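[Automated response] Your request has been received and processed.

Submitted sequence:
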Amino acid sequence: MFQRLSLPDSTTSDEIAFSFEGRPLQARQGDTVAAALLASGVLTCRTTPISDSPRAPYCMMGVCFECLVEIDGVPNMQACQVQVRNGMQIRAQQGARRLA
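Generated structure:
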């Protein structure tokens, strides 16, 4: 569904490794977590608290909160507002958020 555009000056090896639900994935340096997930074919990043309906990144600019995930053990992170880092461990957020 989503495909990266090739950049004319992308000759450097800028790929970094992260995982989603324990599955190893690759991203480009500077990608947001949401962009990296979509580019890797991950289309669902959380479920709703009421109906458990699957949700995915939508606005990609921090307005809709549809992309909430758990990043390195911290829940309720907006995937579209966080740059992916090497070794980052991301989990889908299921149902209602946990209060710390």
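Summary generated for your ticket: The chain is about 5% helix and 30% strand. The longest helix spans residues 33-39.
If you did not submit this request, please reply to this message.
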